[in-house]
C-alpha cells in the first residue's frame, strides 16, 4: 500500500524589507529581543522607544562569531521556556549577522518554529545576512553547518545604526556589497568603483542596490538549489580561512574579501576572468580597507576542507567562479592541480 503525503500547497512566506528610519513596531504577542551587550548598550533604548508588545523581554548573549554555537542557542531557548513563550510569540534580532543567524535558528526550532523579525545593525547584515532566511550556527567542523532556512516576518534596515559601527566592521560589509556587484551587476560594480561609501546617501543607495540583488536571487531560489549558491562567491575559500583561524582573526567579510581574491585567481586560470578585471576588484578591496592575502600553512589541508562545504559532495567540490564582471558560474570537476596551484600562490606569500 502507498499513501501520498501531499505537501504541494504553497506556503506564502514572503515579506518586506524596509530601508529607512525604523518605524513603530506593534506586536500583539510576547516579544524577546535578542542582542549582545555592545549593540544593546548602543541601540536597545532606541528600539524600545519604537516597540510595543504584550510583554517584552531582552535576552543578551555574548558578542562575536566564536559564540555562534549550539550552546548559545540553547541559552536563548532556555530563556524562552523560562518566560513561557509559546508558538505565537515573536523574536526580534537586534544586531549583526551572528545575532540574526542565531535568533533565526532559535525561532526555527522553538516549539517547531515561531516568528522572528530582523533588525540588522551592521552593514554586512543589512546588505546580505538579514535577508533570505538563512539561519544557523558554527561547530568545530565548519561554519554554518548546522541550521535551517527560516524566513523572517520582516527586515528593518535603518542606516542610522551604521553611525556607531567600527571602521573595520563597515569595511567587512562593503565586501558583501561588492560580492553582489561582481556576480550580478557590472554597472553596480562600476558605480561602486567611483562611489564615496562614507557618504550617508551613497551608502543607503548601495544598501538598496544590494538588497534588490539579494531579493532577486532569493525570490528565484529560496533554498539554494542553484542560483543562490552564487552568493557564496568568496565564501568557499573564506569559510576555510575563518575556520582555520578559529573565527578570531578575521571578520566574516574580511575572509570573504580574501576568498574573492582566491576565487578570482581560479577564475583567471580557467580563462573566465581577465587579469585586469581581477586587479580592479583587488584595487576596490584595498581602497575599502579589506585584506587581500592570507598565508596558507597547509595547502592540502586547506583543499580537503572544501569537502565540508555545504555545496560539495563526497567526491566533488563546487566552486563559485565569477565570469568577468557581472556574471557568475557554479563549477564542479575542476582539476585538483589547478586549485592547488592557486592555493600554493597564497602559501608562497607566507610571512610576506
Ligand atoms: N549569504 C548568502 C545567502 O544568503 O545565500
Please describe what this structure looks like.
The protein has helices spanning 37-50, 70-82, 97-109, 123-129, 167-184, 186-194, 200-220, 235-244, 252-269, 275-287, 299-305, 336-347, and strands spanning 16-19, 25-26, 30-35, 51-52, 55-60, 90-95, 115-120, 134-139, 142-149, 154-157, 319-323, 327-331. It is of the alpha/beta class. The strands form 4 sheets. It has a 6-stranded parallel sheet, with helices on both faces. The chain has a two-stranded parallel sheet with strand order 2-4. A two-stranded antiparallel ribbon has the order 8-9. Bound molecules: glycine (GLY). Glycine is lined by residues 128-129, 132, 134, 228, 231.
Amino acid at each position: 500500500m502507498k499513501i501520498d503525503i501531499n505537501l504541494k500547497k504553497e506556503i506564502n512566506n514572503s515579506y518586506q524589507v524596509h530601508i529607512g528610519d525604523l518605524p513603530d513596531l506593534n506586536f500583539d504577542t510576547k516579544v524577546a529581543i535578542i542582542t549582545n551587550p555592545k549593540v544593546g548598550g548602543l541601540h536597545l533604548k532606541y528600539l524600545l522607544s519604537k516597540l510595543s508588545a504584550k510583554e517584552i523581554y531582552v535576552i543578551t548573549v555574548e558578542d562575536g562569531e566564536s559564540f555562534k554555537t549550539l550552546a548559545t542557542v540553547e541559552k536563548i531557548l532556555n530563556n524562552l521556556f523560562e518566560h513561557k513563550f509559546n508558538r505565537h510569540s515573536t523574536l526580534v534580532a537586534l544586531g549583526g549577522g551572528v545575532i540574526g543567524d542565531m535568533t533565526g535558528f532559535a525561532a526555527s526550532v522553538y516549539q517547531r518554529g515561531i516568528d522572528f523579525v530582523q533588525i540588522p545593525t551592521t552593514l554586512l547584515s543589512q546588505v546580505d545576512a538579514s535577508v533570505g532566511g538563512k539561519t544557523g550556527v558554527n561547530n568545530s567542523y565548519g561554519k554554518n553547518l548546522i541550521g535551517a532556512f527560516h524566513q523572517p516576518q520582516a527586515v528593518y534596515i535603518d542606516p542610522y545604526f551604521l553611525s556607531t559601527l567600527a571602521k573595520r566592521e563597515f569595511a567587512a560589509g562593503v565586501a558583501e556589497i561588492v560580492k553582489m556587484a561582481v556576480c550580478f551587476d557590472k554597472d553596480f560594480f562600476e558605480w561602486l568603483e567611483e562611489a564615496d561609501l562614507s557618504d550617508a546617501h551613497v551608502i543607503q543607495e548601495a544598501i538598496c542596490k544590494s538588497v534588490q540583488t539579494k531579493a532577486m536571487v532569493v525570490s528565484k531560489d529560496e533554498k539554494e538549489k542553484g542560483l543562490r549558491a552564487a552568493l557564496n562567491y568568496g565564501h568557499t575559500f573564506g569559510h576555510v580561512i575563518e575556520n582555520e583561524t578559529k573565527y578570531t582573526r578575521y571578520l566574516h567579510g574580511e575572509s570573504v574579501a580574501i576568498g574573492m581574491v582566491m576565487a578570482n585567481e581560479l577564475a583567471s586560470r580557467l580563462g573566465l576572468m581577465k587579469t585586469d578585471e581581477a586587479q580592479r576588484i583587488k584595487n576596490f578591496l584595498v581602497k575599502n580597507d579589506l585584506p587581500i592575502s592570507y598565508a596558507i600553512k597547509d595547502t592540502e589541508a586547506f583543499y580537503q576542507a572544501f569537502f565540508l562545504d555545504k555545496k560539495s559532495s563526497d567526491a566533488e567540490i563546487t566552486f563559485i567562479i565569477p565570469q568577468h564582471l557581472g556574471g557568475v558560474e557554479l563549477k564542479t570537476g575542476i582539476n585538483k592541480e589547478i586549485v592547488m596551484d592557486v592555493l600554493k600562490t597564497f602559501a608562497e606569500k607566507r610571512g610576506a
